[in-house]
Design brief:
Radius of gyration: 11 Å
CATH superfamily: ACP-like
Distance between the termini: 21 Å
Number of helices: 5
Structural class: mainly alpha
Order of helices and strands: HHHHH
Strand content: under 5%
Largest sheet: none
Length: 79
Amino acid sequence: MDDITRELTDLVATKFKVPPERVRLESDFIADFGADSLALVELVMALEERLGVRIEDEEAERVRTFADAVALAKTKSAA
């Protein structure tokens, strides 16, 4: 597991109050963790803060799974 994935695993586990081992790439924030739209916005804001990047609304709307969040974080941190 790379550093970004590990860091996001910890962030998601804390945000949704689940054990880190429940956070998998295929995890769906809504179906698996009971997230609502506000929780997803807060998650994206936490990603922005942790990575020191700006995530556009259009990008944030595409984040539905942990894999989506990891891919976005990797793209943003590489830019």
